[in-house]
Write a sequence for this structure.
C-alpha cells in the first residue's frame, strides 16, 4: 500500500496537468476561432447594442411625450439679482429629474428655448418633465415675470436651414467667462437676431438642455483628470531633470570649468558638482487639477443646439455666424465652439451625415446627450437662466409695432423707425388703443408736422377729426395732401382770422336749438365756458354766474319756441344777453313768451331778485360780450340765428374740420372756450348712441398752452371723459410745465402715446421722468431736429420709449400731393362750412335783434291778443 501511494499521487498530478493543458488549449482554440470569426462577435455586440439602444430610445420617446412648456415674459422693470438667478438654476436642475424611474437619462432634462421668429425680439421658453411644472411655475423672480402655459409650436418648413451644436473647448476644468448683469448677458444674442425679418421666413432658435450630472460619470471624469494631472506632473519633473542634467553637463564641458579645475589645488574636489539631484514630482492638489469639477454641488451637464432658417438663401448661414460670434462673449479659458471639423471652405457638423440624424432626433424629442466636455456650474450659465432684463435693449419688430399702411383705418401713423440693420419703416399704433396722445417739444422740432401726418393719414383712411390751430399755419401745409375728390365733400374750414379785404366766415349760434340740443346742456356749456375763460367760480363771481345762467336760460327757451314755431331764423344769439338785461321791453316780451317753459324757481328769480340788482351788476357779464361784438369776425360768426357749425354732426358723419381761431387775446380765449366746451358737450351727448355705433373722432389741439389758457378745466375733462364716447384727443405743446396743473395731470395720466422732441433739459424732464429717466433729459435735449422719443401702447403693453424720426409730409405723402387741386379744396371747404362774405353776415347779425323782437311781439300773450283783436276788427 505504501509503495502505491507515490504512483497515485503522480497519476493525479498528471491528470491535473492534463486538464490545465486542455483548458489552455481550449482557450487558445477559442481565441483562435474568435480571431478567425471576429465578425460574429462584433455582430453579436452590435445586435445587443442595437436592441438596447432601440429600447432606450423608445423609453426616452415615451417619457418625452409627457412634457410641459412654460413661457416667461419679463416686464421693463425686471432686474434680478445673482442670487435669484442662481436659485432659478437650482430649480431647473432639480426639475430635470422629475421623471419616472424607468426614464433613460437622456430624457431627464430641462430645456431653455430662446426663440426669435418675428413675434417677439427673443421669446424665453422652458420645457421639461410634466412633473416639474409646479416647481418651475413659481419663480424666484417675483412679480416682474409673468409665467404662461406654453402652447405647442409648429414651424412651417423653410427653404434653407442650418444646424449647429456647440461644445466647450479649451481647458476642461476652467469656467466660462463671468459676464456681468449690466448690460444684460443676453444682449449679444438679442443683437444677433435684431435684424430678423419674418416676411422672409427668418427663424433662429437656441436650445440649452440642462441635466444633473451622474455621480459615476463625475467620478470617472475626476479619476481621469487626476491621472492626467499626475502624468503631466511626472513628465514635467522628468523634463526638468533632463534639462538640469543637460545644463550641468554643459557647465562641466565649458572652458571656464576646465581652467578652474587645472588651477585648483585639489582637482578632484570639483567632482562633487557632478552629482545632480533630480526634482521630485510635485504633489497634485485635487482642487487645482479638477477646477470646477472638484465639488459636486450645482454641477450640471449641458447641451447647446442652434438652428437658423430662412426662405432666402444665405440669411440662415449669416444668422448662425452672428450667433456664433454672440457666444464668444461667454468665452475665457473655456469657450463655446461649434462642433465639427472644417476642410477648406467646407464645414462638416450637425448639418451633415452622420451627425445630422442624431441632431434632429434630439431637437425634435428634447433629448439631452451632451459631449463629455460639457460640464458647467450653474453660476457659469447666469446669463441664460433668465429672460431679458431691464438692462437689455430690445429691437422693435413688426409684431411689436405694426407697419403703417396708407388707407388702413385701424392704424395711426407715429413716425419712421430705423432698425438695427439700417432699414427704415413707417410704424403705427392701433387706432382703437390710441386713446389720448401728447406731443412735447420746442418750436420747429416737428411735433406739428408729425400730428399733421397722422391726421392726414387718418383722414384718407375715412376717419373724422377736428384740427384746432390758433396760428392757422397747419391749414396751408395740409392742403395739397387733402385735395382729393374723395375728401372734398368731408372737409370744412372755420377760419376766424379775417384775412383778405372781404373774408368769408362760417357761422355758429351756441344758443341755437334747431339741431335738437338739450336746453340745460347748452346753458351749462356756455356758462362753464364763460367761467373757465374769465376765471369765475362760486367764490369769486357768484352773482355774475347767476345772472349769466338766468339770461341764457331765457334765451334758450326763446329759441326753443322759435324752432317749434317753425321760425329758426328768428332765434336769439349770445349778443342778445345785453338786450335781455338792459332793455325792459325786450325782457318783458321774452319772459312773457317763455313763461310756460321756465321752472318756478327761474320765474321767481326774474320776478323778485332781478329787479333788486343795481345796473352796475351787469357790467361783468356784458363786458366780455361787448368785446366779442366789437370784433367784426366774431360778431359775424356768433351773430347768426342758424349756424352751420355743428360739431356733433361732424363727429357722426366723419367730417374733417379745420378750426383756426383768430389769436390768443381775451376775446379769442373766450371764443376758444366756447368752442372747447361745445366740443365736450357734443361728445358727451353721444351717450344717446350705443357704444358700438359711436363713430371714432379725433380732435387735434395744436398749441395747448394757448387753448388751455382759455379753458383749462374743459381740456382736462376731455382727457378724462371723452374716451368713453370714442372721442380721442391729440395735444401738442412746447412746455408741459406751462399747462395748468389739472390739464397736465389728466394729460400725462391718460396718455396712450407720449412723445417729445428735443428741447431744454428742464422742458423735457417731466416727460423723461415718466419713463424713469431712460432716456435721460440730457440725451433727449441733444437730439436732432425732427427726432422724437415716443412711448406707445400696442396690444395692451407699452412699447418704448423708442427713437423715431418724425414723418415729413413731402416724403411720406408725396404720392398724395395734389397742389393743383388746392383752390378747389379751399372753395369746397368754405362751402361745406357755410362760409359767406363778412359784410353779408355782419348785416344779418345787425338785423337779428329786430327779428327776435318781432317774433317775441307776435308770440307773447299780449302780442298774440293784439294780433287777434286786429284780425277781429278787420273781420268786422
Amino acid at each position: 500500500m505504501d509503495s502505491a501511494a507515490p504512483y497515485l499521487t503522480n497519476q493525479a498530478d498528471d491528470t491535473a496537468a492534463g486538464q490545465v493543458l486542455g483548458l489552455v488549449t481550449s482557450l487558445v482554440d477559442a481565441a483562435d476561432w474568435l480571431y478567425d470569426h471576429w465578425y460574429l462577435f462584433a455582430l453579436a455586440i452590435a445586435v445587443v447594442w442595437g436592441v438596447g439602444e432601440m429600447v432606450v430610445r423608445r423609453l426616452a420617446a415615451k417619457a418625452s411625450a409627457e412634457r410641459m412648456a412654460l413661457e416667461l415674459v419679463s416686464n421693463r422693470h425686471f432686474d434680478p439679482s445673482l442670487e435669484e438667478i442662481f436659485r432659478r438654476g437650482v430649480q431647473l436642475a432639480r426639475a430635470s429629474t422629475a421623471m419616472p424611474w424607468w426614464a433613460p437619462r437622456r430624457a431627464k432634462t430641462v430645456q431653455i428655448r430662446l426663440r426669435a421668429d418675428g413675434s417677439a425680439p427673443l421669446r424665453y421658453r422652458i420645457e421639461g418633465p410634466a412633473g416639474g411644472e409646479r416647481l418651475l411655475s413659481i419663480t424666484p423672480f417675483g412679480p416682474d415675470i409673468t409665467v404662461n402655459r406654453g402652447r405647442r409650436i409648429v414651424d412651417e418648413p423653410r427653404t434653407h436651414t442650418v444646424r449647429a451644436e456647440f461644445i466647450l473647448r479649451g481647458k476642461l476644468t476652467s469656467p466660462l467667462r463671468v459676464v456681468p448683469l449690466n448690460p444684460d448677458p443676453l444682449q449679444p444674442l438679442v443683437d444677433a437676431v435684431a435684424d430678423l425679418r419674418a416676411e422672409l421666413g427668418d427663424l433662429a432658435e437656441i436650445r440649452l438642455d440642462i441635466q444633473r450630472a451622474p455621480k459615476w460619470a463625475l467620478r470617472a471624469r475626476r479619476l481621469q483628470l487626476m491621472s492626467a494631472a499626475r502624468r503631466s506632473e511626472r513628465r514635467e519633473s522628468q523634463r526638468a531633470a533632463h534639462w538640469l542634467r543637460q545644463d550641468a553637463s554643459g557647465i562641466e564641458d565649458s572652458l571656464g570649468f576646465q581652467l578652474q579645475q587645472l588651477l585648483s589645488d585639489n582637482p578632484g574636489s570639483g567632482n562633487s558638482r557632478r552629482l545632480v539631484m533630480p526634482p521630485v514630482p510635485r504633489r497634485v492638489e485635487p482642487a487645482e487639477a479638477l477646477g470646477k469639477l472638484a465639488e459636486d454641488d450645482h454641477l450640471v451637464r449641458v447641451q447647446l443646439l442652434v438652428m437658423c432658417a430662412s426662405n432666402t438663401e444665405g440669411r440662415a448661414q449669416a444668422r448662425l455666424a452672428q450667433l456664433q460670434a454672440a457666444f464668444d462673449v461667454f468665452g475665457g479659458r473655456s469657450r463655446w465652439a461649434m462642433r465639427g471639423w472644417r476642410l477648406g471652405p467646407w464645414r462638416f457638423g450637425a448639418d451633415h451625415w452622420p451627425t445630422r440624424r442624431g441632431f434632429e432626433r434630439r431637437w425634435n424629442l428634447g433629448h439631452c446627450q451632451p459631449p463629455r466636455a460639457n460640464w458647467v456650474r450653474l453660476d457659469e450659465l447666469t446669463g441664460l437662466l433668465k429672460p431679458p432684463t431691464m438692462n437689455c435693449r430690445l429691437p422693435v419688430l413688426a409684431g411689436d409695432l405694426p407697419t403703417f399702411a396708407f388707407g388702413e383705418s385701424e392704424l395711426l401713423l407715429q413716425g419712421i423707425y430705423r432698425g438695427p440693420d439700417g432699414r427704415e419703416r413707417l410704424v403705427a399704433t392701433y387706432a382703437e388703443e390710441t386713446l389720448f396722445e401728447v406731443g412735447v417739444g420746442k418750436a420747429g422740432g416737428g411735433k406739428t408736422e408729425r400730428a399733421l401726418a397722422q391726421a392726414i393719414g387718418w383722414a384718407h383712411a375715412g376717419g373724422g377729426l377736428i384740427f384746432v390751430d390758433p396760428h392757422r399755419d397747419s391749414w396751408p401745409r395740409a392742403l395739397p395732401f387733402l385735395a382729393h375728390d374723395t375728401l372734398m365733400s368731408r372737409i370744412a374750414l372755420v377760419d376766424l382770422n379775417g384775412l383778405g379785404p372781404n373774408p368769408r366766415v362760417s357761422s355758429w349760434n351756441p344758443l341755437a336749438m334747431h339741431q335738437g340740443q338739450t336746453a340745460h346742456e347748452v346753458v351749462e356749456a356756455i356758462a362753464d365756458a364763460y367761467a373757465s375763460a374769465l376765471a369765475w367760480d362760486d367764490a369769486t363771481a357768484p352773482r355774475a354766474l347767476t345772472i349769466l345762467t338766468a339770461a341764457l336760460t331765457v334765451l334758450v327757451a326763446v329759441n326753443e319756441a322759435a324752432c317749434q314755431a317753425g321760425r329758426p331764423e328768428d332765434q336769439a344769439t349770445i349778443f342778445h344777453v345785453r338786450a335781455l338785461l338792459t332793455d325792459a321791453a325786450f325782457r318783458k316780451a321774452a319772459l312773457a313768451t317763455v313763461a310756460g317753459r321756465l321752472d318756478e324757481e327761474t320765474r321767481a328769480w326774474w320776478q323778485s331778485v332781478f329787479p333788486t340788482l343795481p345796473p352796475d351788476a351787469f357790467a361783468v357779464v356784458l363786458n366780455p360780450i361787448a368785446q366779442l361784438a366789437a370784433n367784426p369776425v366774431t360778431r359775424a360768426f356768433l351773430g347768426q340765428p342758424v349756424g352751420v357749425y355743428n360739431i356733433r354732426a361732424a363727429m357722426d358723419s366723419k367730417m374733417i374740420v379745420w378750426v383756426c381761431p383768430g389769436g390768443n387775446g381775451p376775446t379769442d380765449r373766450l371764443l376758444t372756450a366756447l368752442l372747447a366746451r361745445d366740443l365736450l358737450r357734443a361728445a358727451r351727448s353721444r351717450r344717446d348712441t350705443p357704444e358700438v355705433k359711436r363713430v371714432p373722432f379725433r380732435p387735434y389741439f395744436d398749441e395747448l398752452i394757448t387753448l388751455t389758457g382759455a379753458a383749462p378745466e374743459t381740456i382736462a375733462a376731455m382727457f378724462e371723459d371723452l374716451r368713453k364716447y370714442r372721442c380721442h384727443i391729440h395735444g401738442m405743446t412746447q412746455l408741459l410745465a406751462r399747462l395748468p396743473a389739472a390739464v397736465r395731470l389728466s394729460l400725462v395720466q391718460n396718455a396712450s402715446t407720449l412723445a417729445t422732441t428735443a428741447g431744454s433739459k428742464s422742458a423735457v424732464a417731466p416727460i423723461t421722468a415718466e419713463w424713469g429717466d431712460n432716456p435721460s433729459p440730457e440725451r433727449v435735449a441733444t437730439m436732432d431736429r425732427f427726432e422724437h422719443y415716443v412711448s406707445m401702447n400696442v396690444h395692451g403693453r407699452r412699447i418704448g420709449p423708442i427713437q423715431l424720426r418724425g414723418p415729413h409730409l413731402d416724403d411720406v405723402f408725396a404720392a398724395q400731393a395734389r397742389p393743383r387741386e388746392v383752390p378747389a379744396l379751399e372753395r369746397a371747404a368754405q362751402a361745406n362750412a357755410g362760409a359767406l362774405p363778412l359784410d353779408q353776415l355782419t348785416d344779418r347779425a345787425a338785423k337779428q335783434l329786430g327779428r327776435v323782437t318781432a317774433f317775441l311781439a307776435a308770440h307773447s300773450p299780449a302780442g298774440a291778443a293784439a294780433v287777434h283783436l286786429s284780425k277781429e276788427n278787420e273781420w268786422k
About this structure: Confidence is low (pLDDT under 50) at residues 863-876. The longest strand covers residues 299-310. Residues 215-252 form the longest helix (38 residues). The two ends are 188 Å apart (CA to CA).
